[in-house]
Amino acid sequence: xxxxxxxxxxLSHLMAAAIKEFWPQAHLAIGPAIDNGFxxxxxxxxxxxxxxDLKNIEKKMAHLAKQNLKFERADxxxxxxxxxxxxEGNPYxxxxxxxxxxxxxxxxxxxTVGKFxxxxxxxxxxxxxxxxxxxxxxxxxxxxxxxxxxxxxxLTRIYGLAFDTKEELDEYLRIMAEAEKRDHRKIGxxxxxxxxxxxxxGTPFFLPKGFxxxxxxxxxxxxxxxxxxxxxxxTPQLLNAELWKTSGHWDHYQEDMFILHHAEDNCDMGVKPMxxxxxxxxxxxxxxxxxxxxxxxxxxxxxxxxEKSGTLHGLTRVRSLSxxxxxxxxxxxxxxxxxxxxxxxxxxxxxxxxxxxxxxHLSTRPEKFLGEKSVWDEAEANxxxxxxxxxxxxxxxxxxxxxxxxxxDVKVKDAIGRQWQLATIQLDFQLPQRFDLHYTETDGSQxxxxxxxxxxxxxxxxxxxxxxxxxxGLFPLWLAPVQIKIVSVSExxxxxxxxxxxxxxxxxxxxxxxxxxETVGNKIRKAAGEKVPHMLVIGDKEAASPxxxxxxxxxxETRELAKxxxxxxxxxxxxxxAN
Length: 579
Hints:
Blueprint: H1 2-22, E1 27-28, E2 33-34, E3 37-43, H2 53-65, E4 71-77, H3 78-88, H4 91-102, E5 107-113, E6 116-119, E7 136-145, E8 154-162, H5 166-182, H6 184-190, E9 194-195, E10 205-206, H7 208-226, E11 230-232, E12 238-240, H8 241-247, H9 249-252, E13 259-262, E14 267-271, H10 276-284, E15 295-299, E16 302-304, E17 320-330, H11 335-352, E18 356-363, H12 373-389, E19 395-397, E20 407-413, E21 419-428, H13 430-434, E22 439-440, E23 446-447, E24 450-459, H14 460-471, E25 484-488, H15 494-506, E26 511-514, H16 520-529, E27 534-538, H17 540-543, E28 547-552, E29 559-562, H18 563-576
Parallel strand pairs: 11-15, 18-19, 25-26, 25-27
Antiparallel strand pairs: 1-3, 2-3, 3-8, 4-5, 5-6, 7-8, 9-10, 12-14, 13-14, 15-17, 16-17, 17-24, 18-20, 20-21, 21-24, 22-23, 27-28, 28-29
Helix pairs in contact: 1-2, 3-4, 6-14, 11-12
């Protein structure tokens, strides 16, 4: 992977070299390797770059790559490098070198490939012969503020895709084309599930059908993510800044919070971005003994996080979210048992959605953290033991833990092989101490509990976006907003449709009638387009018979089944959460 990252970074330089041949006046900013490829941010001045220009840049890159050009490094004393950047009139390289100088750097490195030289730490491939023909492709244009700051100039960002071989690139492009068809925003609009409005950025609207799906996910949460032993609570959305100062969020998380000032009380208030500090107050309210532990508090109220506008994306990156969120207050000797139970729950809950666990990451102590290093070491060791006991392979993700404790992140693969990070288990020795929580041990002494933070589906909004794309809108029967669509052949058949609808609804089955003044063929095509699991067409024969003519989703042929038997079949599938 490290070798591929080096190749991607080298391609960003090759792209910059091609661009400078076409637009010598362009000022280059930065060009890193990223997941699946690379990009470069460029100031083209008054020139407007179009998507159609990408093909020419790509051809030039391929031409340069064939020349077996070497990447050659040269070091330069930093003041000389700064002078060179100033003479070239590039404000971005000038700023970068100035910052390095302020940071105490004495020299900087440059890499030359062909006629092109660029400021860079490296590394790069030895020569362009390592870049195989057809293994890269310029992907898209985007706008990007210099250094991500909205106060700075908007630059043109050109994205490229890069893999070791043409075959790997082709497979990735196939998956991306399929992903575009499955985009949850597109399907959400087509099936009337959600809407996004500019007046509520990052806070999606759930339409009636989408709300049905959200409620079904809540049922799964209560039955499988929580279950026996969990107690649900509801805590305030708006809490005094003193709470967030005690928890550490004021110092470590404030920029991601929505902060209000209450003029009458003359105090700052934080809109709740997570439930854990409020759950600490719930625990602290009562006197607890070892017999009360583990105490598992759960909550799914909406949380609000101040995500940057440029990162918002439908349901998968939002500012308002609800989680299958729980906090388990336990004794140290109960940690391994509780985490083992959670890992079993994760396996079971993903099986319901046919999601495959792909990777498990253990995220360790970040650079800025609460508490003592020794406590962190103990917490990380506990998580390693739990994963080993569950026979689960995992990767270490250095420095990516929460500021109050290490965590386990579970990543799954969807139907087209894309990876999504969903479940999180975090071990926390810090917040219980900061909130001065205690319980009475068997010997009568007062001890501080350990808290396990856990969300197995994660954000329900994000999870819903993932499964909309995973199923491509072909939802299993139990999850489908409309489980049966009844189509009337003519106006005279509407009473029979209504009677049948009442019977289905009396059994808790979600059903809709299409009694519009359209042809039967149009109604059938419309129902098929809505991807409803079952369709019933009611004409003279069907209205007079106890036997139903059923068209199952994806099938051209219909089947006949007695009404009572069909109801029993549907109810059994719903109960089993089957398709």
